[in-house]
Amino acid sequence: MLKRVVVTGASSGIGAATVRRFAELGWQVVAVARRADRLRELADETGAHAIVCDITDEEAVRRMAAEVAETGGASALVNNAGGAIGTDSVEASDNDEWRSMFEVNVLGLRSVTAALLPVLREATRAGEGGAKHGWASILNLTSTAGLAAYPGGGGYNAAKYAAHAVTEVLRFELAGEPIRVMELAPGLVHTEEFTLNRLRGDAENAEKPYENLIPLTAEDVAQVLVGAFEQPPHVNQDLIVIRPVAQSSVFHAHRGPLAAKTQEQ
Ligand SMILES: NC(=O)c1ccc[n+]([C@@H]2O[C@H](COP(=O)([O-])OP(=O)(O)OC[C@H]3O[C@@H](n4cnc5c(N)ncnc54)[C@H](OP(=O)(O)O)[C@@H]3O)[C@@H](O)[C@H]2O)c1
């Protein structure tokens, strides 16, 4: 079976760790993001094929999909590019920021998926060893922010809820095809840019969510994510939720050491 995967948002954080993990396991990887210099370094390190593409630009997405097809096709897609801007209330939010979150987390995911579906279908047409068909897989990286709202979640909650809904719609629409549609929703992940971007560059406060607890790392998420692709291809993990042990919901993060309760507690 063709093992070539397209990973969007590959230039940092979870996307870059995902590219590394796939490459370690022998997959061919196409790494997609806007920053060419970072992609080039990752390509040198992992052997990935880098494509510079802003996923909010539909024409650029079509060119990216054509390049994927011309350079060997793909049997797998990870829609990881995304992010948050701001923690303002609904009342105080800025529509331009909401629009840009919707553009990347929802519309970009849709454009990439639509442009690559014909490429994924092509991969399913080539069965091996007497099999009638091969398989393809799509995984959307949403968030626990797409499953539970919280004050200040605003546009990010709205965008990730929408990405969650799009994933479910797609699974219905592709029923009957040998294409699985999966979703991974992480809680708190310490990546170098996510909170910095969310807080519009405020480096001092960007570290606060990760203080006094052990958050997930990009590598933790990549390990679980790639594990979903490594399952037998008829196994569709619809929704995988992953959080640090210290975080039991979007509202509950235990700060300080973890300790087993005594009998009195
Ligand atoms: N960190 C967390 O706590 C957390 C938790 C749950 C879910 N998530 C989700 O996980 C995903 C990755 O998060 P992360 O923490 O790894 O964030 P990150 O380090 O900020 O990475 C975001 C990636 O998306 C790319 N990207 C952004 N806009 C893009 C565009 N228009 N076109 C193409 N690529 C674009 C960025 O690359 P360029 O700037 O080079 O384009 C970057 O590689 C996101 O969808 C995020 O919402 C994160």
TrEMBL record:
<comment type="similarity">
    <text>Belongs to the short-chain dehydrogenases/reductases (SDR) family.</text>
</comment>
<dbReference type="GO" id="GO:0016616">
    <property type="term" value="F:oxidoreductase activity, acting on the CH-OH group of donors, NAD or NADP as acceptor"/>
</dbReference>
<protein>
    <submittedName>
        <fullName>SDR family NAD(P)-dependent oxidoreductase</fullName>
    </submittedName>
</protein>
<dbReference type="InterPro" id="IPR020904">
    <property type="entry name" value="Sc_DH/Rdtase_CS"/>
</dbReference>
<dbReference type="Pfam" id="PF00106">
    <property type="entry name" value="adh_short"/>
</dbReference>
<dbReference type="InterPro" id="IPR036291">
    <property type="entry name" value="NAD(P)-bd_dom_sf"/>
</dbReference>
<dbReference type="InterPro" id="IPR002347">
    <property type="entry name" value="SDR_fam"/>
</dbReference>
<keyword id="KW-0560">Oxidoreductase</keyword>
